[in-house]
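note to self: dont lose this again. the chain is below, predicted strucutre after it. 282 aa total, dont forget to put it in the shared folder this time
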Amino acid sequence: MDMRKNMSNYTGGEYIMEKIMEKLQEMLGGTAGNIVGAIILLIVGVIVIKLVMKGLRKLKSFEKLDQTTTRFILNFIKWLLYVMLIIAVIGMLGVPMAEVIAVLASAGVAIGLALQGALSNLAGGILLMILRPFKVGDYVEAGGASGFVQSINLFYTVVLTIDNKRITVPNGNLMNANVTNFTAEEKRRVDLVFSCAKSEKPAEIQQCILDAVAGSKFALQDPAPFARISGGTNEAMEFTVRVWCNTADYWDLYFELNQIIVEAFAAKGVQAPALRILNEKA
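---
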């Protein structure tokens, strides 16, 4: 009788343990399946996003836009796709989206404060695309940096200096600073000052400068070149020279004018300003 009771108890306990193990296996199996599915979704999603971005870059619609707008739109689409992928992965893991949204909403203030600088840069990037103070390839001076704009991203702008240094400037700083765009217009003016001895005849010096400028292939004749006395000292006369050129030829004209005007002065025998010597008594 006791043996039957013991067998009955053992069989009942074994049954309960089997049920518990089945339940655990079911739960672990579902969780493992979700994790595996999420990993597969993440890998496939990344590959799909790369293929989509590659296809978008080849669209003829983007060929009609300038390089700055194209890069900005593509960066925005890429970030948006990755956000959608992350949301899909979270859903695959079985996390209720209502709870996720509630957590994000409750943490919104803290996240906003922590990402205040990043959000400011994002807003700056959007405003840069709307207001368009410069585009890729322009030579600018802004935010403590000067150089050619290499790229405009969502949060920052990359500037390449003349000596090939790469400067990353936050977009928020650019929108809160003065921006000087040296290549926005088709024409630029080179302004220089030359000196000669006060004993020289101003009209002859003026004509000498204009004749030298006329020999430059980079100088434009409309507007006409300008050369006039703009100041002086007891020993010297100063002539301001202003010559217009195409923006792309600015530096070529700048260095050429410095050379050809000095050479013209030398050929004409123009005297340099006398040096004032001060004798200081001890």
